[in-house]
Amino acid sequence: MILPPARLGMLGGGQLGRFFVSAAHEMGYKVWVLDPDSHSPAGLIADRHLVAGYDEYAALDELAEGCAGITTEFENVPAETLDYLAKFVPVRPSAQAVAVCQNRIAEKTFLRDHGLPHGPFAVIRGEADITAANAGLFPAVLKVARFGYDGKGQARVADRAEALHAFHQFQNEPCVLEKMLSLDYEVSVVLARDEAGAVAVFPPAENSHRRGILDVTIAPARASVCQQDSAQEVAERIAQALDYVGTLGVEFFVCRGELLVNEMAPRPHNSGHHTLDACVTSQYDQQVRALCGLPLGLPRQHSPAVMVNLLGELWFENGDPHGHYREPDWSVLAAVPGLRLHLYAKHHARHGRKMGHFTVVCEDAVQAVERAMAARQAIGIRDE
Ligand code: ADP
Ligand code: MG
After folding, report:
1. Which of 5, 74, 349, 374 is the 20 to 30 Å CA partner of 308?
2. Is residue 262 within 6 Å of ligand 1 at its C-beta?
């Protein structure tokens, strides 16, 4: 067991890393963050911020020497970096597990090989794969295999010609071509797994997206008990098959009542932010515990919760990218009962950039949704 006041290492300095640093500090640990951005949200509150790239081995050596265990908040940390660090210090999750989650081809192949439910897809490595793709896949979504996030690196394509065009736009990078599914709704499951294989699963959450970016999470999801149980069970099977140690997020589509895995995130998940305010143990506490070999905490959710993401457009008058830049009027949120605001201290807002979120907790689930949606409108988020 790694016990306080040991030093922990975090690869990546975004908001997920920032919440990890807070959780670790709360539990008595010190944290060093490695991130190339000198203004990174986690770096700002870390005990030390190594401003370096994920392939700068001098900095990686320093991190390995200084820390008792290392984890990540960013799925695009090169697997080689994790493998390298693991020679000197425990790294959780493993490079192998992260490698599956960071490449859509590896991820989809993993799901297929393990008999886990997923939508129809084809692997696209060249033009010939588009020509050969099953006609039944169209209309489809073409997604680059690596480095996509928040809907980036994705194109909706009606037919083969459009798919070819999009493939060229993506510089012929390896892709997956997914059938465009008509979704009843989307859910996600966040869980933590320890080295001995014990698992703590949070209740499934229900997610809605705007322009490919998570907008609102309602937790627990309003899905049937049976569907919630099977989502949790599938997520557990994934964690087990990856021999995963840490916090894992699994996104699902519900499509004509059928549960399909969309993708996995080898880290805490945006749809698990509410665990900070509504659960006995947060997804970040679990990440610390799993990394340090402590028994996992209780994932019980004590109140219904609704989380709303605050994106950069909110900083621009009327959401206009050329509009006047100013701070949103946070006083309107301060007055809402049960609302907690979390801002990530990013130094500049951009359209689509995740700047913060708020969570509304309430004894009554319906009222939580009403309050959160009213607050979302009051702060200026418009449905177009
Ligand atoms: P990201 O890495 O950006 O989260 P996702 O693959 O999860 O990428 O896609 C983002 C969102 O786009 C999904 O949550 C879903 O709303 C929509 N989407 C993605 N793929 C499909 C699909 N095959 N059919 C329908 N909607 C999709
Ligand atoms: Mg996603």
Report:
1. 74
2. yes
**CA 351: distance to chain centroid?**
19
CA of 145 to the centre of ligand 1 (A): 13
Question: What is the pLDDT at residue 150?
Answer: 75
Task: Specify the number of domains making up the chain.
Answer: 3
Q: What is the pLDDT of residues 311-332, one digit of tens each?
A: 999 999 988 888 999 999 999 9
Which ligand 1 atom is nearest residue 182's CA? 25
User: What is the CA(98)–ligand 1 centre distance, in A?
Assistant: 19
Rounded distance from Cα 136 to ligand 1 centre (Å)? 19
Is-contact 177 142, C-beta < 8 A?
Answer: yes
Domain hosting residue 189, numbered range: 185-379
pLDDT at 174 over 80: yes
352 in ligand 1 pocket by Cβ < 6 Å? Answer: no
Q: Is the CB–ligand 1 distance for residue 2 below 6 Å? A: no
Q: Minimal CA–CA distance to 37: which of 354, 347, 349?
A: 347
Is the pTM of the predicted complex or chain greater than 0.85?
Answer: yes
pLDDT of 318 reads: 87
Q: Say if ligand 1 is within 6 A of residue 107 CB.
A: no
- Residue 341's DSSP bridge partners are 358
Confirm whether 2 is domain-assigned: no
On average, the pLDDT of the chain sits at 96
pLDDT of residue 152: 82
Asked whether 155 lines ligand 1 (CB < 6 A), one says: no
Task: Give the ligand whose atoms come closest to the C-alpha of residue 154.
Answer: 1
In this prediction, residues 239-253 reach a mean pLDDT of 98
Q: Give per-residue burial for 277-316: e unless 16+ CB within 10 Å, then b.
A: bbbebbbbbbbbbbbbbbebbebebebbbbbbbbbbbbbb
pLDDT digits (tens, 9 = 90+) for 96-142: 999 999 999 999 999 999 999 999 999 999 999 999 999 999 999 99
Domain stop point among 163, 179, 195:
179
* Same domain, yes or no: 175 and 317: no
